């Protein structure tokens, strides 16, 4: 019996397809695309069998995340899709340059707002947007950091529109997660689909741990020859605990909790070991600011380290990402990023923003309230896809609720036109079908910046959905940057 082509019935509609290109250029059946040709050799049963084996492996390895809102199924694997998303060398070159430009500007911005605040004095950005931001930490004013690096590990969320243009959706400068899936997805592909990868020249991702360690070495306190690095985790109940374990192992550094560290009378940080106390110079923390130091922030925090801010200010320890870096990934600050890039770098943005309406501004607020049915509304302080209202797909009740919320607290919201995210062939029980995707490249910044080739491709597993977040049912797939 003839083997059914897995692309039979594939239709990307009016969306840009990551495999076949613009809507008017697609020809899945018999297409000359080399990856499509390779995929066409598989039948759906084989693809599903191999994918089931890969997902069992994820579960057995404990590669899970936590959904706190779902009492019935707290620990889950991130759904894995075995159909890779490819990025050409030319596209990656623009992404690479654009991400480095953006993170360079973000670090300059953070250095400025915790220093002279010249960008505020020059009226490029409103003072209230910075000092009124819930992530602004006055305790960081005047603190000098090695290489002026505030966001050592950044995640830049990108989408591709109908015309094939990459746009920045948001910046992640606090503790961007997901890089462990980038590396594990590649390992899964190498084990489960070696025949699909054979002979394909793809940029590697397995050196991320080494590059991360080098970045943290570079940004440790000056004059320290061999800085001791630790990764500080809230503990086993954190949603990204697997990633904390993974990254500590990849870097070859201790994984510690707050109770494992102490600060002495000379403001030095030490780690408790069975051999005694060992000096710590660099802390890659995965704990939010407010829980980091009960002497300064939340007094009831059991997760942090009393005195760690004293040590930071004394220049005896470095913290990545820096306390207060969250100002830079605020969704309202995001709207000013083209101006921020121009102000600090005197350059136009290589990667454009999605057009954004800031509800704190009178004219933008009026437009948003008049066009709610056409816009995507986002609360500025949320992440993980929570609180988003997609106007074109929302019910009348949801629109009315969004209107009430915006009127009550306009400063808490932005709105954007609905962009038809690009799609990528994704494995379903009915064959390969188009599902919307985004991309999160990871940028490491020490003396200079480096972008991990590829990043995390998240995929909306539900048909028609544009919400790719894992907490909202999204999955992930391997990202191939072609050499």
TrEMBL record:
Q: Which Gene3D superfamilies match?
A: 3.30.1490.270, 3.40.50.11290
Domain Circularly permuted ATP-grasp type spans what residues?
A: 84-460
**InterPro entries, per database record:** ATP-dep_Glu-Cys_Ligase-2, CP_ATPgrasp_2, UCP005522
Lineage of the organism: Bacteria, Pseudomonadati, Pseudomonadota, Alphaproteobacteria, Parvularculales
Name of protein: Circularly permuted type 2 ATP-grasp protein
Which residue spans traverse the membrane? none
């Amino acid at each position: 019996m003839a083997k059914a082509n897995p692309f039979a019935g594939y239709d990307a509609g009016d969306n840009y397809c990551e495999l076949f290109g613009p809507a008017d250029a697609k020809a899945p059946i018999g297409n000359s695309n080399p990856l499509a040709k390779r995929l066409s050799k598989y039948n759906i049963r084989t693809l599903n069998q191999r994918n089931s084996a890969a997902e069992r492996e994820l579960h057995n390895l404990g590669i899970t995340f936590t959904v706190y809102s779902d009492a019935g199924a707290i620990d889950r694997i991130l759904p894995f899709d075995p159909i890779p998303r490819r990025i050409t060398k030319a596209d990656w070159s623009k992404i690479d340059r654009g991400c480095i430009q953006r993170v360079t500007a973000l670090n300059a911005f953070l250095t400025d707002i915790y220093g002279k605040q010249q960008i505020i004095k020059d009226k490029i950005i409103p003072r209230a947007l910075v000092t009124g931001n819930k992530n602004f930490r006055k305790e960081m004013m005047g603190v000098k950091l090695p290489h002026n690096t505030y966001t050592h590990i950044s995640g830049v969320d990108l989408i591709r529109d109908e015309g094939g243009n990459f746009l920045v959706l948001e910046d992640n400068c606090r503790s961007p997660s997901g890089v462990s899936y980038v590396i594990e997805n590649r390992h899964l592909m190498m084990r489960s689909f070696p025949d699909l990868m054979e002979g394909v020249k793809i940029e590697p991702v397995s050196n991320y741990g080494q590059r991360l360690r080098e970045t943290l070495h570079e940004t440790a306190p000056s004059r320290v020859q061999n800085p001791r690095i630790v990764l500080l985790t809230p503990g086993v109940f954190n949603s990204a605990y697997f990633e904390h374990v993974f990254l500590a192992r990849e870097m070859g550094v201790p994984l510690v909790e707050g109770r494992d560290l102490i600060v002495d009378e000379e403001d030095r940080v030490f780690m408790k070991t069975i051999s005694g106390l060992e000096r710590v110079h660099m802390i890659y923390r995965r704990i939010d600011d407010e829980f980091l130091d009960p002497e300064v922030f939340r007094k009831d925090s059991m997760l942090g380290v009393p005195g760690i801010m004293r040590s930071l200010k004394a220049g005896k320890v470095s913290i990545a990402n820096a306390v207060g870096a969250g100002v830079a990934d605020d969704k309202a600050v995001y709207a000013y990023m083209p101006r921020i890039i121009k102000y600090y770098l005197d350059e136009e943005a290589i990667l454009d923003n999605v057009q954004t309406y800031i509800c704190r501004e009178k004219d933008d607020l009026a437009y948003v309230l008049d066009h709610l049915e056409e816009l995507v509304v986002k609360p500025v302080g949320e992440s993980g896809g929570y609180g988003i209202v997609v106007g074109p797909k929302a019910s009348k009740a949801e629109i009315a609720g969004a209107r009430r919320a915006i009127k009550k607290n306009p400063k808490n919201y932005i709105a954007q036109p609905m962009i038809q995210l690009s799609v990528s062939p994704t494995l379903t029980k009915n064959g390969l079908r188009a599902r919307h995707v985004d991309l999160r490249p990871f940028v490491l910044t020490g003396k200079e910046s480096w972008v991990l080739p590829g990043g995390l491709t998240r995929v909306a597993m539900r048909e028609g959905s544009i919400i790719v977040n894992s907490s909202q049912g999204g999955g992930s797939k391997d990202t191939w940057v072609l050499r």
